[in-house]
User: What shape does this take?
Amino acid sequence: MGPHTGAPPSGGLSSLNVTGPSPTEADMLATAAYCRSARAGEWLGALPGVAAFAVMPGGQTWTTGNG
Assistant: This one.
């Protein structure tokens, strides 16, 4: 969220869930992926043992299935 507007970043994610080798690693990956915005799916999809589900601001969704 933008600190001044409260809006998500342009092209950003409304929601993101990540599973990984450990809860700590999944949390770290989710934070990094949220910062990557629209490129998060491609990045997470390339990581072994990681799966993700995201919701975009317009309601579209995407998943990665490596987990």
Remarks:
- The chain has a mean pLDDT of 86.
- The longest strand covers residues 15-19.
- The chain has two helices and three strands.
